[in-house]
Write a structure and sequence with these properties.
The structure is a single chain. Helix 1 packs antiparallel against helix 2 and helix 2 crosses helix 7. The protein starts with a helix and ends in a 5-residue tail after the last helix. The chain is built from 14 helices and 16 strands. The N terminus is likely disordered. It is an alpha/beta fold and 503 residues long. Strands 1, 2, 3, 4, 5, 6, 7, 10, 11 and 12 form a 10-stranded mixed β-sheet that branches. The protein has a 4-stranded antiparallel β-sheet with strand order 13-14-15-16, covered by helices on one side. The chain binds zinc ion (ZN). The site of zinc ion (ZN) has 6 residues, from helix 4.
Length: 503
């Protein structure tokens, strides 16, 4: 506190001194007028910048929610993958708790993130498919943290979770590396204006197609600035997302084929309409793994910074994905996400807080993205005035059963697409059709067993329909896709194309 007041006082004294000096000499030292003006501006900026930051200083604990877009759990070392794709995530898993059976309720970026940030299933939060706006009635994690006195910030570069699609609510500072900045409070506004200029320069220098490091650079800058105040940081990393072009420093780490960018992009284009040969598919998987390595590297930088600032023991870190990724699996789109394929629904989920979260714990129970916000609220003892549909995963819900069903919605824009997953089965409604897959046999997407197991199908149909009805009944806005979509602008369309969302 003494330091805080001292910093503010020094800023004010410099400002007053510069002001008096300017008044005294403004007639006689015309030559130095611009320099004196500069000193006044700089001193005022320093006083406001540091003053607001330090005066608001309060102890943590902090929370960092990291979403790695399209990250498969089974391509991480800690989930049993043979390749060393994830040394830093593996460390978090070793020192924290890992959920082995985690699923997203929506295999799209808008819906998957909306569930993660609201603790509500897709039909309840209202952001049903990519580009459908998250309504203000769906109060988000950022709003919960803000209402509990936290500084809140988001760093992303995916238009589908941008403020234009309703994801700005609750954030003091929302930095979208691709499209612009939303800001509300005095301190972060000043900070964000500075970043806007630096971003414009850095974006101009970026190589198109490669995942950049803008989001982690800006997140680390923000943490350095705000770490004396308790904070909630949402960090969204796009590296593992298609078209699988790893940054040069990681390209070629896996596999023995030259990772030529033109070849990657031409094969990615091919995934839209044709099946790839086995070597072509393996080539793309090698690049996907290198992109995971790149995302993992960013998490390493973040951990380093937390330790450097001495706040690592006072910060809850959650690492997860908005959805998985289908990688050359039979019966579905060969690569990508958005369908109800098992590979696009299973996600990693790791929680880390040294001394607070059990270390080395491996939970077998089935969990979903909707459990994340209730768990964070429970761990940090936050006040929340909105009912959530997920469960708090520690404490009373410690023994979540492995056979707890997981639910998801698919692309609802053209037809009904719902699924329920148990350890044994996946039952899906796809418009007029129904599919039943036996998961342990590895035949998901290939053999529809609906005729062979009618009683299994009937009971799962009842469970699934019950969930759909409940989700619609508990929705924050009446279920409708009419007039809810947000149309991306020209620049957003270009960026979405570069990310492989559209052709
Ligand atoms: Zn996504």
């Amino acid at each position: 506190m003494i330091v805080n007041v001292g910093v503010l006082a020094v800023g004010i004294v410099i400002g007053l001194w510069a002001g008096f000096a300017y008044r005294r000499h403004m007639r006689s030292i015309t030559l130095f007028r611009p320099a004196l003006l500069l000193v006044i501006v700089a001193a005022t900026v320093l006083a406001v910048f540091f003053g607001t930051s330090y005066m608001a200083s309060r102890p943590g604990p902090n929370c960092i929610l990291i979403s790695i877009d399209a990250l498969r759990a089974d391509h991480l070392g800690c989930y049993g993958y043979a390749r060393a794709t994830s040394p830093n995530i593996d460390r978090l898993a070793a020192e924290g708790t890992m959920f082995l059976r985690a699923f997203t309720p929506c295999p799209g970026s808008t819906g998957g993130h909306a569930s993660m940030l609201t603790g509500l299933y897709t039909l309840s939060h209202g952001a049903y498919v990519n580009g459908v706006r998250l309504p203000p009635e769906a109060r988000t994690a950022a709003e919960v943290f803000r209402d509990n006195g936290y500084s809140t910030a988001a760093f992303t570069k995916n238009w589908f979770i941008s403020p234009a699609v309703g994801f700005g609510q609750g954030f003091d500072c929302f930095i979208d590396n691709a499209y612009g900045i939303i800001l509300r409070k005095a301190g972060p506004r000043l900070f964000a204006r500075g970043l806007a200029i630096s971003q414009a320069i850095r974006r101009a220098l970026e190589r198109p197609g490669f995942p950049s490091s803008l989001e982690i650079e800006d997140a680390l800058t923000w943490i350095r600035f705000r770490h004396r105040h308790k904070f909630f940081l949402f960090l969204h990393i796009m590296d593992a997302h298609s078209p699988y072009v790893p940054p040069p420093v990681f390209a070629g780490r896996f596999g023995d084929t030259e990772p030529d960018v033109a070849r990657i992009l031409s094969l990615h284009d091919k995934t839209w309409e044709a099946r790839l040969s086995r070597p072509e598919a393996e080539f793309l998987v090698d690049r996907y793994d290198e992109e995971i390595l790149s995302a993992d590297h960013k998490i390493g930088l973040l951990l380093e910074e937390l330790e450097h600032l001495g706040i690592h023991n006072n910060t809850l870190v959650v690492v997860m994905a908005d959805h998985g990724e289908v990688l050359d699996e039979s019966g579905h789109k060969q690569f990508g996400h958005g369908t109800l394929a098992h590979g696009g629904l299973r996600i990693p989920l790791i929680m880390w807080w040294p001394g607070k979260i059990p270390a080395g714990d491996r939970r077998q129970g089935t969990v979903q993205s909707v459990d994340v916000l209730p768990t964070v609220i429970d761990i940090l003892n936050l006040q929340d005035r909105m009912p959530r549909q997920g469960l708090a995963l520690f404490g009373s819900a410690d023994s979540i059963a492995a056979d707890r069903p997981a639910f998801a919605t698919g692309d609802l824009s053209a037809r009904d697409e719902y699924t329920v997953i148990t350890p044994q089965w996946q039952y899906s409604i796809l418009g007029e059709e129904a599919h039943l897959y036996d998961l342990p046999t590895g035949s998901a997407g290939i053999y529809n067993l609906i005729e062979q197991y009618p009683s299994v199908a009937d009971s799962l149909q009842a469970v699934l329909q019950g969930w759909v009805d409940r989700s619609i009944a508990e929705a924050v806005v009446p279920y409708s896709l009419e007039g809810r979509s947000v149309t991306p602008g020209k620049e957003a369309l270009e960026r979405l194309k570069a990310l492989g969302y559209i052709q």
